[in-house]
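Repro:
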Amino acid sequence: MNKKLSTLLLLGFGTLSFAQQDILALTGKETANIIFQDFRALDSQKGITENILLSAKDEPKIYSEKWNKEIFEDKKSNANALANQMATLAVDGRGKLVYMPMFSSNIYVFDPQTKNIALVENVLSNPTACDTGSQFSRMTIGKDGNVYALSNSGSQLLKIFYKDGKYAVTDLGIVKDSSGNGDNLLSKMQTGFGGDMIADDDNNFYIFSASGNLFKLITKELKAQFIGKIKGLDSNFSVNGAAVNKNGEVILASAKGGVLHTFNLETLQAEPLARKIDMPVYDLGSSYVLKNKKNLVGINKNDIYPTKVSEGFVNIRITDSQKGNAQVKIYNTAGTIVLNKKIADISNSENKIELGNLISGVYIVNVESENGKSIISKKIIVE
């Protein structure tokens, strides 16, 4: 990754003590259905290691946070600490592993030191096997050291935190799609479900869908903005795990096994790492978040995105105090206007501009106010 764009922020509350093993992987079996196998320490540069922290064959002690005592769970049910169906994993600020079974509201916290598991009884959620949208498949540590989990449909963003000697959970609300997302909706199964997420140092989140779409979730607004489609992945690569490693790189993994990839947030390009892992990865987690030296997608300033266009449109975001109409003029490299469109109300902070039949090439998009003053100008590449 370009270090001028994104550098590493290691949370100092609690970190993994596995030397070069900087990421944790929730791994499983190569089957059509998700079958949990174990939590492993992962060397993001070399692949899966033999350092297994928790296995489906283990018999850890389970302690209820609610009842403050050891409990015994039905291992044949969907609601147990070693349930078959799991797709979430995160490391919190205390160095504990937090996860949820897909078909249960239970939240579990695994202590790598004691090998014990705390059960956090979560009455705020009701994921079921028959409602894919209600299930949780994305989880990450936030800048604040807390863990955040997002349901497939965005219907719930949960915050899992440690307070007064116990873990607790709160529902932050429904995540809605930004108006400029077009057909690429977080709330739509084909474009937004599954995957994973990572956080930045503003406690906003980048959400990866299994289909390879990338969204940015602005926590204060609870809106998911479509950024673009990941490039460089094989057609059979399902994006199921994402985490930031010790070098500040975003690492992607697939439930279908194969090769780990690094991912560049600015170019949306994924590059394969040399070593195959030959093991399905359902989720990734680490103690790291992204520290941005500049806002990669212009959320808090006027912006035109994406700059590499493959979906036939660009979004124009105006965040300052502009009012009235505006004109969008698109120029080719010869300086000729090839598209001229009016924005009826520039105070609407997000505007989707269809590019029509523009051929592949480089263009300049210029947004002008009613008096002809340039508000923002940016180069785009139509693919």
